[in-house]
Amino acid sequence: MGHTAKSMLLTMAVMLPITLLLFLAVVPFTLFGMHTLPFLRAFFDKQRWLTAHRGKSDWDTARREMMCIRGSMYGHLKWKHLANGTKKSAVVKLLGQPQQTLGRWHKGRRCLEWNLGMCSGIRADYDQLLVCFDKNNVIEYVTHYQT
């Protein structure tokens, strides 16, 4: 085996573990940054929530949705305002009328959903807040998903 072949094998033997370690380190941070962090940036503010998707024009409304104003409040909203057992009427009073007024079924539960904006991933799809209720019309669980 020539000198060049040995150095190429040595280079590959060193670079492969380094590349693997970088990949294993970068992927979790990227997933956190693109799919978790956008939902943890702001405290819930009812007035900001209610006006987040009301622009002066269609373009302004779309721009505001791309800013993820509602989505940035999701974490605080979920943990501090949408506790299990909260009545459906209190949720609607807090968040306004849902975008999905007919209700949506998720895991066998009746749910309401609100548009959060374009928040996760590369911001090409909308994220939705999903609040699901039991047969007594109290919150059973809260989640979000990307459409």
Q: Any overview of this molecule?
A:
The chain has helices spanning 3-35, 46-51, 58-66, 74-80, 88-95, and strands at residues 104-106, 109-117, 127-133, 139-146. A 4-stranded antiparallel beta sheet has the order 1-2-3-4. It has a single domain, classed as Beta-lactamase Inhibitory Protein, Chain:B, domain 1 (2-Layer Sandwich), CATH 3.30.1450. By secondary structure, it is an alpha+beta fold. The mean pLDDT is 82. The protein contains 5 helices and 4 strands, in the order H-H-H-H-H-E-E-E-E. 22% of the residues are buried.
Blueprint of the fold:
Layout: H1 3-35, H2 46-51, H3 58-66, H4 74-80, H5 88-95, E1 104-106, E2 109-117, E3 127-133, E4 139-146
Antiparallel strand pairs: 1-2, 2-3, 3-4
Briefly summarize what is shown.
Helix content is about 45%, strand content about 20%. The chain contains 5 helices and 4 strands; from the N terminus they run αααααββββ.
Considering the chains and any ligands shown, give keywords for the structure.
147 residues, Beta-lactamase Inhibitory Protein, Chain:B, domain 1, alpha+beta, elongated, single chain, 43% helix, four-stranded antiparallel sheet
Question: How do the SSEs run, as a string of H and E?
Answer: HHHHHEEEE
| Tally of distinct domains | 1
CATH class group: Alpha Beta
Shape: elongated
Beginning-to-end CA distance, first to last residue? 56 Å
What Rg is obtained from the alpha carbons, in whole angstroms?
Answer: 22 Å
Number of strands: 4
CATH topology: Beta-lactamase Inhibitory Protein, Chain:B, domain 1
Q: Major sheet, described briefly? A: 4 strands, antiparallel
- What order do the strands of the largest sheet run in, or round the barrel if closed? 1-2-3-4
**Low-pLDDT sequence parts:** none
